Amino acid sequence: MKKIFIGIIALQLVTNMLATAQTVPVPNKGRYSFNFKGTYFEVDPKSGGRISSFKIKNKELLYTDTTGKNNNWGSTFWPAPQSVWGWPPHDTLDSSPYSASVKSGVLTIKSMDKKQGLHCRFEKIFRMNEADQCVSVTYKIVNTGKVADTLGPWQIARIPSGGLTFFPKGLSLAKGKLLPLMKDINDVSWFVYDSAYISKDPNAVPKLFSDGTEGWIAHVNKDRNLIVFRFEDTPVEQKSPGEDEIEIYTNPNLTYTEVEPLGPYKIIPAGQSHSWTVKWYARQVPANIVIKPGNQELAKFVRVVIGTVKETVRK
Question: Tens digit of pLDDT for each residue in 102-115?
C-alpha cells in the first residue's frame, strides 16, 4: 500500500511539472523559435531582431520573401512618428544584428547602441504565455541621449496580400487612400483587400489610418488561418503626431499588407525607457463561422481567443 501511495504522489508530481512546464525558445542557426500546440514562432536577431516566422499547423502567416533584397519582410518595430526619421528606417534598429540572451525561458534581444539621428536603442522580450496560448512580445524604447525625448511604439507585421483585416471601430474618423476599402459594420471596422483598387493610383500611398477600441486587430487569410494582435488600447489623445492607433499599408506590388498597431506617444527621460506589449495569437477559424465583413460571430471568435468574452466557441 505504501509503494502504491508513493507511486501516486510521484505521478502527481510529474503531471504537475508537465502542466506548469514553460515552452522555452530553442536556438537554431542563429534564430530562436517557440513551438506550442501546432503554433511556431521564430525570431531572427541577425536581421534587425525581426519576427521571421509565425505558423499554425505548418502554414506560414507572415510575408517572409527575402528575394527583394530589402528588409520589407517578417515583423519589425519602429519608433513613432515616422516624421522624426523619414525613410528608410535606421539600419541599427531595423536590420542590423541584435544581441540575444535566454534566461528562465525568456528571449531578450537588444539593438546596438549607435547614434543615427535617433538617440535610442530597442529591446525586444519574447515569452510564451501558456495560459493564453500566445507569444507575448514586449518592446522597449530606451533613451540613450542626454535629454528627454518623446516617441511611441509601432509594430509592423507584414502579411501576404489578400484576406480580411478587422478591428473594433474607433472613436475618431479614419482617413487615407485605403479608406474606401474599409466598412464599419456592427461596431467593427472591416478592411477588404482589393488589388484592382490598390494598383489604380501608383503615385498615392496605399495606407489607412484609424483609431480602434478594445486593443486588438485581426487578420484571416484564404485558408481560414487567423492572426490576432492584442495590446493595450491607446486613447486618441495619446497617439503619435501624424500617426494613428491602427494603420494598414498595402505595397504597390500587391505582395503584402502591413498590419500596424501603435502604442501611446510618451515622454522618455534620458536613460529611461518606454515599454509596450503585444500578444500574438494564431488560430484556425471554425468551419461553422462564415468569413465575411460584418459577421459578428467572427469578431466574437476573436474576443473569445483573446479572453475578453468568456464563452466556448463551437468547432
Answer: 999 999 999 998 76
Whether the upstream peptide bond of residue 206 has omega within 30° of 0, thus cis, is no
Which residues lie below 8 Å from residue 193, measured CB to CB, with a gap of 6+?
161, 162, 163, 164, 165, 181, 250, 257
Residue 312 lies in a domain: no
200, burial (CB in 10 Å: exposed 0-12, middle 13-18, buried 19+): exposed
Mean of pLDDT values over 50-60: 98
**Low-confidence winner among 1-10, 39-48, 184-193, 257-266 (lowest mean pLDDT):** 1-10
Domain containing residue 250: CATH number: 2.70.98.10
Continuous segment of H or E residues that includes residue 29: none
170, burial (CB in 10 Å: exposed 0-12, middle 13-18, buried 19+): buried
- Say which residue, 116 or 54, is predicted with more confidence: 54
Mean predicted confidence (pLDDT) in 271-299: 98
pTM score: 0.92
Domain for residue 163, yes or no? yes
Containing structural domain, residue 246: 2-306
Query: Helix, strand, or coil here: 56?
Result: strand
Q: Label residue 9 by pLDDT band (50, 70, 90).
A: very low
Using the predicted structure, report yes or no on whether residue 315 has a pLDDT greater than 80.
no
Structural domains counted in the chain: 1
* DSSP H or E stretch at residue 88: none
CA 210, CA 207: separation in Å to the nearest integer?
10
Give the C-alpha distances (Å, rounded to integers) separating 228 from 80, 184, 270: 22, 19, 34
Return the C-alpha cell found at 307: 479572453
